[in-house]
Amino acid sequence: MTYAVASPDLTAMAVENTMVAEKSVRAIKCELRCNSMAHFPSLMCSLQRLARMLGVIAVAAWFSQLTTAGVCAEPARTNVILIMADDIGYECYPCYGGTSYRTPNIDRLAAGGMRFTQAHANPLCTPTRVKLMTGLSNVRNYASFSTLRRSERTIGQVMREAGYRTAIAGKWQLYGAEHYNDLIRGKGTLPEDAGFERHCLWQVKKLGSRYWGPTVTIDGEDKKFGDEVYGPDVYCQFLLDRMEEYRAEPFFLYYPMALVHNPFEPTPDSASRDQKNKQRNFADMVAYMDKLIGRIVTKTEELGIADRTLILVTGDNGTNRTIKSKLGEQTMVGGKGLPTDAGTHVALVAYQPGAVPAGKVCDDLVEFSDFMPTAAAAAGADTPQPTDGHSFYPQLRGLAGQPRETIYIYYWPRPERGEPLRFVRDRRWKLYGNGKLYDVQNDILEKRPLGAESAEVRERLQAALDRMPAKGQKLLQFE
What we know:
The protein has helices at residues 8-34, 41-54, 57-69, 104-112, 125-134, 138-141, 155-161, 231-246, 278-302, 341-344, 371-378, 393-396, 455-466, and strands at residues 79-85, 114-120, 165-171, 198-202, 215-218, 221-224, 251-256, 309-315, 324-327, 330-333, 345-351, 360-367, 407-411, 421-425, 429-432, 437-439. By secondary structure, it is of the alpha/beta class. Helix 2 (41-54) runs antiparallel to helix 3 (57-69) and helix 8 packs parallel to helix 9.
C-alpha cells in the first residue's frame, strides 16, 4: 500500500488513519453485503471524500469503484408529465367502468399503475387550471374567467427552481385572449412568465381554431396552420420533440389537452371529415385523446426513460352536458359546470413502471391544489408555500402518506356577477355553504338533503368549511 508522504510524522499519522479507515471499510462492506448498496449512497460518498482527505489512496480507490458502479453517482431524478384532458368526467373511461368509449392506452396505464377513485376538480376549466397552476384554492387568488393573476407563483416556476427543464403544450386560456372584453383582455399571465421555457398553445392572445386549421402560439409567435392540420397533433408533437431535447436532464411537461372540448368535430381517424353526429364525434375525440396519450407513453419507452418518468393523467372538469355516456348499464349525463359529482369527479391515473405500484386502486381524496406539492415532491423539492395542497406522492410510492380528510371547493367562475358557491366533502358526505348536506355516496344527483339525523357529520364538515375563507374577491383585481 502506498501513501503520499511529506514527513515521518505525517507517515505515521497516515498509517494510523489507514488502519482506522480500513476497519470502517470492512464494516461497511459487511453492511452492504447484508443490505442493498442503494440504501447508502450519501454515506458512501461522504466516506470517499474523507478517505481522500486522509490521503488513504487505496481506500479512496475502492470507493471510486463503488462510484463507477453507481453507488455514489447522483440518482436519476424523476421526470414529471402532467396530462389534463378538457371536459371529460370519470364515467368516460373503461378503467372506471365506462362502456361507451375505448381508451386502451389509459386503461394500460391504470393496469400498470395506480387509479384514484376520489379525484375532484372544480366544475369548470379556468377555476381548475388556476388551482392546478398555483396550488391554492380559488378563494385565495381567482381573479376572473380566462386569467391567472401575474403575481402568482406557478407549478412551472417551482419545477424550474428545482432544476427541471419545462415545457407546456395544448390549451392555455390564462392570459385573457382577444375575444374577451377590455376588463379581461391581456390582464392575465403569459406562459413564458409562468415558468415554462418552451410553449405551443392555443388561446394565448388569439383565439382561432383549436382543432382543424389551428391558430397556435409557439414560443411567443402566433402561427396559423392550414386546414389540413389537426391542432392536437401539433401540440403533442411539440412535447415529443421536447422529450427528445430534454432526455438527458430532468424535465416537467404540462399537457393541458385541447381534446375533448366542443365543438365536437371529426378527428383524423374519423370515418369522414363531414360527419355531424356530435355523440359519434365525441367518441372519436375520446379515442384520439387516448391515442395521443399513448404516443407520449411510447416516447418514454423509446427514449429509455420510462422508469424515471411519472405520468399523471386527469381531466379539468365533468363532461359536456350535451353528452350521454354509459357507466356500466347506467346512463350518465355530462355535468360540466355543475357542483355535483357529474361536474367534479374526474379520472386520475398515475404510471411509472417500477415505482408506482401496478394495478393499485387508491380511494384517497385528491383535488387540484394537490398537483403542485406532488410534483415538487417528485422533484425532491420542498413543499411550495403557501399551499392548500396535500402531496399524494407517498401514495404513488406505495406508502400510506397523509391523505386528506376533506376537499374544499370554492366555485365562482365569473366573480363580476352573482355569488360564489362553496362546499366541503369527504368520500361520502357533502356540505354546502348554505347548510345543505347530502350523502353523495347514495344520492349522487343530490336530490335528498339530510336533516337533523346527521348532526355529527354536519358538525365535522362545518368545522372544515369554517377553516377556509367564506368569500374571495368580488371585483376583478389585478397587479
